[in-house]
Amino acid sequence: MGRKRIGVGAVLVVVGVVGLVVGIVQAVQPDSDLLAEAVDTARTVEGGLLDVEAESAGDYTIYVVVPTGHLHSDDVPGVQQEAVHSVTCAVERPGEEPLTIRGDRHLTGQSTDDAASVGWFSTGAGEVRATCEVGDGDEGRTVLLVPGKPSIWAGGAVMAVGGSLIGLLGGALACWGAANRQKARLAAEGVASGT
Prior knowledge:
By secondary structure, this protein is an alpha+beta fold. It has 2 domains: 2-20 and 159-193, no CATH class; 30-151, Jelly Rolls, CATH 2.60.120. The chain is 41% helix and 27% strand. The chain is built from 4 helices and 8 strands. It has helices at residues 2-27, 31-37, 76-85, 157-193; strands spanning 40-43, 49-54, 58-65, 87-92, 99-102, 115-123, 126-134, 142-147. The strands form 2 sheets. The chain has a 4-stranded antiparallel beta sheet with strand order 1-8-3-6, sandwiched between helices. The longest helix has 37 residues, at 157-193. The two termini are 24 Å apart.
């Protein structure tokens, strides 16, 4: 039984390490991918109009660009959250009621180094328009419209944490198996020596 626990534990450690690495890689995905995926961009100082012809039904996410290269890494989440909270977008979708997306009510966020999601919406095929505004003192932001919606995987963070936990579980299982195997070996030696 100890050998099986050691084997299963080793497999879990490998799976955990792979999950951790994949999660970290996803979490540090460069912003250039996000910019390349954007179907439209707009400056809020120029009216913040995002306008796209949706070829089919689907989800779209609005991001606000928040340059953070000059900031200390501890300050980045607060600055991004402040920028997201200042954005409000009025969305017009084909055949549906207008929708207001407010960054201060956005629950499932996704951030990269220089952009953070404001909110997402679903739409049918046809013309989609989103007009975004920012609060006082935060003028001149760039907003992006990107197909898809923020992931529950939080940009790799959940996978990295899950991988770590699976790896720890595998390590504990392997240790338990090794301890039981050692105990069985000592018990067998004790019987053989007559003690």
